[in-house]
Design brief:
3 domains, elongated, 52% helix
Length: 452
């Protein structure tokens, strides 16, 4: 057997594999003898059919199998030995290879086209991205404290409804005559009375009791987002929903907020010494700012990624990539779709793969099994910190079990990968920190989603 290659371009090669009869003859003979001993041929006892007949019946198929095995084994061994960082996978060149005659042929020649990774030189000096850091304001802290005091407050079920109550019941859509609309919206829903934007409709709920009915215009009572959420409608349906609704009240819940005192401090921050409201507010602010950090890391990584893509100037094997993508068997990708979406969808994806490969040469980004296990162990320990019956051996077994399941651990792997990516970007760029408000943060998140 002989393997050679010729250069088609800077990134593309044609591999020629010549297989002689001596490369497969022994294995074919052995396989045919095996067939002879166990195949039942009409007119002959088992194992007694002449070898010439066995050869006529099976030699072509057996030869094809053995030649294919030799091709698979040696093509990829050649790629490894030559240290070729191939893009995608080798593509058989059927035009040059032709149709092998395994019945009569003895020597065979096969051609494969391959492409290799382009050399991507990353110029970090061209990347200018700041690391955002959210500075929460008084309003944000006040809102969080209000949520905490309600979360730890006293819950009760009042007989009559007040404006601060949470109401629940069955809502049905009405037709123009005021009757229940056939096939219309009919759901069990819940909402805060205070969320009703129209004062007259809001007041119509106050003082009501269980089993009372209230009719109102949905689009007058709620914003579109609330209509979608409260009545479980599709976004497009919610936008056009202007029907009258009748709510049959099932009940209500009322929360008396917890006082901001030592008891609340200990419940919210059991590991901290919080002695007064000022220290409590400071701790709340720190927690809020920390909660924004992960998304600020995402914003930072996405902005760096965009600039890396914008600065990408390496040659790519475009013709090979298109051909390879069409041979992957996806029914969703047609030649027409590929051409129409190449510049906006497929090409950016391939560019990022090439950049990512270059980044991996600087620092490994994909997490090891040990990293995944350690991350899962850390999560388990945080979630079971208050339980006394957990032990390290049990946590270790559970973490390994989850890590060994690719589907269960995918989110953990992605988290570690992203953390490694941000770490690499930080090391190379040493970004300046930029303080932003919550409003600016939300605007950047929206813009980032648009770009994505």
């Amino acid at each position: 057997m002989n393997i050679t290659r010729e250069s088609l371009s800077n990134l593309e090669y044609r591999v020629k594999i010549e297989i002689a009869e001596s490369d497969y003859a022994e294995k074919v003979t052995k396989q045919l003898k095996n067939y002879k001993s166990r195949v039942q041929v009409p007119g002959f006892r088992k194992g007694m059919a002449p070898m010439s007949m066995i050869q006529r019946m099976y030699k072509g198929a057996v030869t094809a199998d053995e030649v294919q095995n030799i091709l698979n084994e040696n093509l990829f061994k050649y790629i490894d030995d030559e240290k070729l960082n191939v893009v995608g996978s080798p593509l058989a060149n059927d035009e040059l290879t032709g149709t092998p005659d395994f019945e009569k042929g003895k020597d065979f020649t096969f051609y494969f086209d391959i492409a290799v990774m382009p050399e991507v030189n990353i110029d970090w000096s061209k990347i200018d991205v700041k690391m955002a850091e959210v500075k929460v304001d008084k309003k944000e802290i006040d809102t969080q404290i209000e949520n905490i005091t309600r979360q730890h407050g006293k819950f009760e079920s009042p007989e009559t409804i007040a404006e601060t109550d949470y109401i629940y019941g069955r809502a049905v859509e009405l037709d123009k005559e005021g009757n229940e609309k056939e096939g219309g919206m009919n759901v069990f829903c819940s909402f805060e009375v205070s969320s009703v934007k129209d004062e007259e409709i809001r007041n119509s709920f106050i003082g009501k009791k269980k089993d009372d009915k209230v009719r109102f215009a949905a689009n007058k009572a709620f914003k579109v987002d609330d209509i979608e959420r409260n009545f479980r409608l599709e976004p497009e349906v919610a936008k056009k929903f202007k029907s009258e609704v009748e709510l049959t009240i099932s009940g209500a819940s009322r929360v008396t907020p917890h006082e901001v005192n030592d008891e609340l401090f200990k419940m919210v921050f059991p590991d901290k010494e919080i002695k007064d409201a000022a220290a409590f507010r400071k701790a709340i602010a720190a927690d809020l700012e920390a909660s924004y950090k992960d998304n600020c890391d995402v914003l930072f990584a996405n902005q760096v990624r965009k600039q890396l893509m914008d600065n990408f100037d390496a040659e790519i094997p475009e013709a090979f990539l298109k051909r390879w993508m069409l041979t992957r068997g996806s029914k969703e990708i047609t030649a027409e779709k590929l051409e129409a979406e190449w510049a906006d969808v497929f090409l950016p994806s391939m560019k990022w793969e090439f950049i990512e490969y270059a980044l991996q040469q600087i620092k490994p980004l994909n997490p090891s099994h040990i990293e995944v296990v350690d991350e899962i162990k850390s999560i388990i320990k945080r979630n079971t910190a208050s339980k006394e019956d957990t032990n390290d051996e049990e946590i270790e077994r559970t973490a390994n079990s989850i890590a060994n399941d690719q589907q269960s651990s995918r989110q953990i792997q992605d988290r570690i990968y992203h953390r490694n990516l941000v770490s690499l970007f930080r090391e190379k760029l040493n970004p300046e920190t930029e303080k932003i408000t919550v409003k600016e943060y939300n605007e950047r998140i929206r813009e980032d989603k648009k770009q994505a």
